[in-house]
Design goal:
It contains 19 helices and 17 strands. Helix 7 crosses helix 13. It starts with 10 loop residues before the first helix and ends with a helix.
Amino acid sequence: MASSLPVPELAEPATACAERLLAADSVLVASHIDADGLTSAAIAATALERAWLCFESVFSKQLDEAEIASIAATDYDTVLFTDFGSGQLDIIADHEAAGDFTSVIADHHQPADATTEFHLNPLLSGLDGATELSGAGATYVLARALGTIRSTTDGTTRSATDGGVTAAAAATDEPARDNRDLAALAVVGAVGDRQAGVDGLTGANEAIVEEGVAAGVVEAGTDITLYGKQTRPLPKLLEYATEAQIPGITNDTAGAIEFLSELDLRLETDDGWRCWVDLTDEERQTLLSALIQRAVASGVPADRIDDLVGTSYQLAAEEPGTVLRDASEFSTLLNATARYERADVGLAVCLGDRGEAFEQAQMLLRNHRKNLSQGVEWVTSEGVTTEDNIQWFDAGDEIRATIVGIIAGMAIGESGIRRDQPIIGFAEKSADEIKVSARGNHALTAEGLDLSAVMRDAARAVDGDGGGHDVAAGATIPPATQSTFVSVADEIVGDQLS
């Protein structure tokens, strides 16, 4: 089994988890609501369906004690947690001890101080869950284990009606699959979880990319790194290139158009401006060279210029020129669904709905982009408060709680917002809860920053709870406790970075 799975370090727990799922009569899949969580749920759903297992999917913004109690109240005796569960292992273990359900966990977040029998997490095998393997990646390894076991059971498979293993089911079932085609969704999840730097995905993620390429579902190559290669008209592609911040082009509609118009290229058609994906390789090289020359002449730092080119991932089965073709754009589309209470739409798109669900997702994406733009503008105009070791803002009800973390990350580096301190954002989740999101960078984590511990300990100091990754984490706290939370968080970060 170890040699047949993409991440050998996880072969043993993946096999144990897969065997437990195959022994279940039915499974409840509980997953997070972001792009990584949605792709995790879709991978799990597809693999379970191919194994002829009955299942149902539910989603949660945050897996807390009340949410787990709600799951325990269902009729399912087996629950598959994807992209969360590790951080709530102590609560889950209590429910298991009470006989409420058996858990199978495929996650990559920092585990709580408890144990369970069926737990698949890269952190437990010496791999970095923040950079080397996402929740979707962990679920993909589980799906591969399911497919591998299923393909070696002499052609027998589970009946979708009784959960048993029958020869009758084998006679009508589709050919056994090893689930390698699900690597495309795992790549989208990892990219959506910000695990892909300019040089692409690393660590265990690389093995998944290789399987996706071999299966013909993923294309990896070197390309311009600007967001929107598939769908944005060229002037908008350059105008919104906030990653590079090229004077006279970035955030400058007229400047971007003037720059493009000076190039000896046919960049417009009767239908309007072409997109990057519409250009030939030669045209792309000409435009990129001109862009780099402008950046150099404008004094853009060398590291930002280098970052204009990097590894890009395309989904081979998707139509070129659509938001689903590029892994980065696909992940943004998914974030725009569940964060607006439409996880069902995002899951349907992941499972192949290119009709009504896709149309709804695109509408949600347009709204999402508007809210993100307005949110970043609010943060930059209102400014942040700087402490000794952290910077923070309290958006109240000005920013949705489900996107305050994204906006905090996007705001780093904007005018008045430092890159050398983690940023914490607060937003009103409900009358009884405040959502907290924290973002750092890998330079800070290399110095010892662990936002997962910061969010957990600072939240518990005010009767809340939190967790996540070292570079990005979140919490939920009671109202009117922000000041104490900030004080505790600032002290913890100071200790970590000292």
